[in-house]
Amino acid sequence: MRRVSLFASALPLAGLAAAYPRVDGPAPQAAAVQFASRAATGKTVIPKDSFNSFDTHWSYNYPWGTDHNGGARMNKQKVSTANDVLTLTASPATGEPPATNGGQQYPVHYLSGTVFAKQQFTVKPGGGYDFEADFKAPVAKGTWPAFWLTAVKGWPPEIDIAEWKGSGKISFNTFNTSSQVAAHDVTYPSPENWHTIRAQIRTASATDVWVKFFMDGGEITTQYGKNYVNSAFYLIVDLQMEGSSGSPGPSAGTTFQIRNVQVTDYNP
Ligand SMILES: *[C@@H]1O[C@H](CO)[C@@H](O)[C@H](O)[C@H]1NC(C)=O
């Protein structure tokens, strides 16, 4: 999504990470066994039926408000849930003032829906998370749905677990800086069907993580994020429009559906 922040990150991330040394030495046996079983099974922190109890797990709009870097303004009315499926709907709108982000203006041509997880996610030394969900995502020009993680403070870090930029492809991206980004696009088959996307995030060093991306059970690519350890993330599901997906977007309404979101915590 290439989130542009007004603020450069002032956090001394490397210094923070150094303050949390990796546990490399031999641990007492009981502790080691406990760690091993917990690391192997993980702890479910967002359950597959989270949309059945929406207010427990999710909030409306972006964590910073209704606007971002595209042609949609988010509105609670454009979010609905039924049978544990979340539906975000974008509809053409006129007379909306432009959105402002990172000192740039974006003409607003749609009202659409966005939600973010109430919980924040911080990879701890030796730990990580799995993020998984099923999607029915639009791929037409001007539609820009995504399921992504972005830094609570500053920017980056950002991991686009799944992003569709109006090209018929799906993109998997990890940002070190705005110009240092790993971006991997693959053809997105039959968008009218459900597809399962999973990102597995684990520490690669005291400061860095690796991210493995899977689609429908098949491994797609591995990327690395610098200084992601001990950095808090928001998890966002949005149906942004135009922007990176081109314009004009569709003249009719567009929907983005997601179900079975599951987040598993593998932190020690
Ligand atoms: C980001 O930083 C990590 C850790 O240094 C490195 O392995 C990776 O290649 C970098 N990614 C890009 C796109 O430069």
TrEMBL record:
Q: Does the keyword Signal apply?
A: yes
Extract the GO molecular function terms from the UniProt entry: hydrolase activity, hydrolyzing O-glycosyl compounds
Family annotation (Gene3D superfamilies):
2.60.120.200
GO terms for biological process, alphabetical: glucan catabolic process
Q: Which UniProt keywords apply?
A: Signal
Q: Does the keyword Signal apply?
A: yes
Q: Please give the start and end residues of each transmembrane region.
A: none
Q: Provide the GH16 domain boundaries.
A: 39-266
- InterPro entries, per this entry? Beta-glucanase-like (IPR000757), ConA-like_dom_sf (IPR013320), Glycosyl_Hydrlase_16 (IPR050546)
SUPFAM superfamilies per record: Concanavalin A-like lectins/glucanases (SSF49899)
Q: Which residues constitute the signal peptide according to the record?
A: 1-19
Q: What is this protein called?
A: GH16 domain-containing protein
Instruction: Please give the organism.
Output: Apiospora kogelbergensis
Its taxonomic path starts at: Eukaryota, Fungi, Dikarya, Ascomycota, Pezizomycotina
